[in-house]
Give the backbone structure.
Amino acid sequence: MQNALSLKCAKALILLRWQQSIVELQVKNLMRLQRGRSHHQLQQHQHNQHRCLSSSVMDPHAATASATSYQETATSASRRDELPASVADLVNKYASMNQTASSLQMLIRMGQGELLGNGFRPSDSVFMGRLGRQLASERVLIQVASLLRQELPIRLAYRIKDLDQIPFMRDMEAVQNVKNIYIDSFLKLIDVPQIVTPQDEMKFAHDLQDLYKKHSGVMVQMAQGAYQLKAAVRNRKDSELAIDDIMDLCQDFLDRFYTSRIGIRVLAGQYLALHDQHQDSLYGNSTNKDLVGMIHLKTNPTEIVRDAADHATFMCTRQYGNAPGVKIEGRLDRTFPYIPTYLHYVVLELLKNAMRATAEEHANMATFPPLTVVIADGKDNEDVVIKIMDEGGGIRRSQINTKIWSYLFTTADQAIQDAFLAGNTDHDDNAPIAGLGYGLPIARSYCRYFGGDLQLMSMEGYGTDAFVHLKRMGDSKEPLPL
C-alpha cells in the first residue's frame, strides 16, 4: 500500500514538474523578447544548441520585426521541447515494452465479450435478462478499459521518442506542440489506477474522452510542422539542404507517426463508442445491433460511396460551379465488417481528387464526363475492391509512385494551403477541395491499417483509376511502427 502511494505521488510530482518546466520556458522566452535580443544573438544561441534546425536552414534576415517572429525564433532557440530527465526515464521505460497488435476481428470479439473468461461471457446463462446483459456489458467495458490503460502509454511513449529524435522537424513549433500534447497524455494515462469497478471505468471513459478531443487536431498540426519546415528551407537561399531531400528524410517518420496515430485513435474510439452504446442501453435508448463500437458488422460500400459522392459534389460545385456525376456499378448489395468513418474518408479523398481533375481538365465544357465507381466482391473473395475511374487527364508517370504519396505534395494554390492550415480539426466538409497534399498518403494508411491497400494507375492525357482494397475477413493485425 505504501509503495503504491509513493509511486502515485512520484508520478504526480513528475507531471507537475513537466507542466512547470513548460511555463518557465515560456516566461524565459517572453523575457528575451522584452530585452530586445537581436536576431544575430538568437542565431548564435541556436548554433550553440547543435540540435536546432534554424542554424542550418533558416534565414534570420528574412524574419520580420514583429513580436510574433521574435517569439517563434526565441522558442525554437530555447529547445523548449527538451525532455526533463524524469520524464525521459519514464518514456524510455514504456518505449522498451512491446506493443500489442489488434485486428478488426479481435476488436469485434472483445466488444462482444467473447474474450472474457468462462462464466463471464454475455452468452453464458447467468447473464440472461436485462440485468444480466447490463452486468456483462460492464465486464466488457472494464476489460477493454484495462487494456487501454496498459497499451496507450506504451504507444504514446514510442511516438514521443520519435518526435524527440526526428531531425529538422523536431524543431518546428507545431511539432513541439504535438509532442507536448503526447507527453501530457502519457503522464496522465500512467497515473490511472487499476480499473476494477464500473465507477472506475466511468471515470476512465470521461478522462479518455477529454484526451481524445485534445488529440483531434494533431493531424493538421503535424501538417503545419511539415509546412513550416518547407518554408524554413525555402527562406534559407544559401542552404545546402534541398526541400526534397529533407522531406525524404521525414517521409518515413510521418508514415510511422500517422500509422501509429490511426491505431491509437482506433483503440480509443472503439472503446468510447462501446461505452456510449452501453450508456444508451442503460437509459433505454435504441441501439443498432449491427454496431460493435465503431465497427459496423454490415458496412455497405455502396452507401458509403453515395454519401461521399454527395459531399465531394458539394465541394466541387462550390469551387468550380459544377461537378461531374458519379455512376456506381457492381455488387451494390454486399456488406462486410468495417469502420464506416474510415472508409468514408478514403472514398471522399479519391472522389475529391477525381472531381477536381475532371473539372479542371474539361473546364471549357458545359458538362463534365462522369466518374465511374465499380464495387467488386464475392463470398470467396479475399478483398472487397472499390475502383474509381475518372477522365481528369491523368498523372505523370514520374509522379505516380513518388510525389503523390509524399506528404505536402500538392498542386493547390498557396492561399488555399494557408487557409487550410488555419483549421484545427482532422476532417472538415468546409475545407477546400485541394489542401496540403497529405490526403492520399493518409488514405493509403487507413487502407493498409487493416490489411488493405490503395493503388493508382494512370493514363496521362486521359485519366486515372484508383483501386481501394479492403480485406473482407478483418483478420490482419495492425502494423505497429517502432
Observations:
- The CA atoms of residues 314 and 370 lie 15 Å apart.
